[in-house]
Write a structure and sequence with these properties.
GO terms for molecular function: serine-type endopeptidase activity. The protein is of the alpha+beta class. It is built from 14 helices and 30 strands. The strands form 4 sheets. The protein has a 15-stranded mixed β-sheet that branches. The N and C termini lie far apart (51 Å).
Length: 562
Amino acid sequence: MFTSSSAVRTLRTLSSLRPLFTSSSSSKLLRRRYPKLLFPPPPSSSSYRFVSSPAQSGGGGVSGVDGPEYAGVNRQVDALEAVELALDSVVKVFTVSSSPNYFLPWQNKPQRETMGSGFVLPGRRILTNAHVVADHTFVLVRKHGSPTKYRAEVQAVGHECDLALLTVENEEFWEGMHFLELGNIPFLQEAVAVVGYPQGGDNISVTKGVVSRVEPTQYVHGATQLMAIQIDAAINPGNSGGPAIMGDKVAGVAFQNLSGAENIGYIIPVPVINHFLDGVEKTGKYVGFCSMGVSCQPTENKQLREHFHMHPEMTGVLVSKINPLSVVHKVLKKDDIILAFDGVPIANDGTVPFRNRERITFDHLVSMKKPNEMAIVRVFRDGSELELSIRLRPLQPLVPIHQFDKLPSYFIFAGLVFVPLTQPYLHEYGEDWYNTSPRRLCERALRELPTKAGQQLVILSQVLMDDINAGYERLSESQVKKVNGVEVENLKHLRRLVEDCREEGLRFDLEDERVIVLNYNRAKVATSRILQRHRIPSVMSSDLIDDQVSGTEAEEVACSIS
């Protein structure tokens, strides 16, 4: 919720995060698969990473202040008790996945095998990390001490919070399984035991450590900032999705660590887990995390506070930018001072009280609200205090941060390949994509806000060479602004503008006032031969075919190489 400079600092932090699953591919391929997301290269050799490994042979919501969910009793975890709990609760997850090729969006990259961990919850569900099953094509699970692998289906995935639910239909799998219960957020220095299947062996592993920090942290897989628990237990690739056990209950889910540092790992806390589970139980699918859609600036400078006539006892943050699609766009105004959220006062640095002498950013209070839930925001505007009611819901960025578990969109006409700008597209430029991808596209991906619902930034990603488009090949990697004078709203709109053209010439206006002009009828004929030459099965991705198109017509569109 803070300014763009803060966002860039956040990007640098996220570049350090790594997931903890193991993969049969080399570590270089893993880095390419999770290529720093939104962030430029880290300033030092330290980096966060996921915790799933390469295939080898052989409690309740948080209110922001002290509450009953934090009234836990300090107790040391007995590693032997954790082992006993885990033997009939923790499973090994085997995933075969195939991610899309965003430069060639009509085909996938070679499949790869990864392994992680998971554990069973009441209701015959298996909880694991989203990055363990991202872009999955086939998932198996195996119980401890069993040689049998059972087919699992992915019920729901929350990529922002890096959590996924699996189900197994085979009754034999559930025989003798012990369901784990979720506990509370542990206090600092409370002991936890992390259980899973890290690399280095095939059997279950238990490592022990203590809680060293609880605060909002960057989740590398979803490029989102949510609450996380830092522990000093050894969390290694393959631990992803395994439980962190405190006493006889789960305190969190292992999901990433800090590479280059000694035993610094992170677990997803129970409030985030419960938010994910509650949404799935009520709607049958992942519902996301709410956002106010505002950028805020701290008011720590005395002159800044005096300029906005804040009283000496007032504290809060300054609203500097509001997302036009946010529900607060017509409620809050630029230069409002947000004093409190749901009755919790906000300090000048944007933090709120949390437990005993701890503080967290007030974004956490927003993210824990359920979609369409009301919140009361107290603001200071033009010398007066106001209490405003807002209904919160998740917000989608103009340029999607991730596109897991879905095929890329594309449209080809006369060898011009049009795609919506996404961050996974930029990741195709390599591990150092922040510096090697086109600078203007990168800046738009990081900073631009949408102005209307359904908006996309459509780009000409490449030109498949042919006589019809000779001379236009240098115009690739540019944003398409207009088609025959009509502003492009999204890729489906561009496709309609092209197909509905009734003029002899078809004109594309690109950024920097550059223009592409084609003879429409000759370009239609050329499209078919270009698709045949490059063995591309369809002129467009399936999501661009209108819902009202009949099955026969859809098949003709999808196979339009004629």
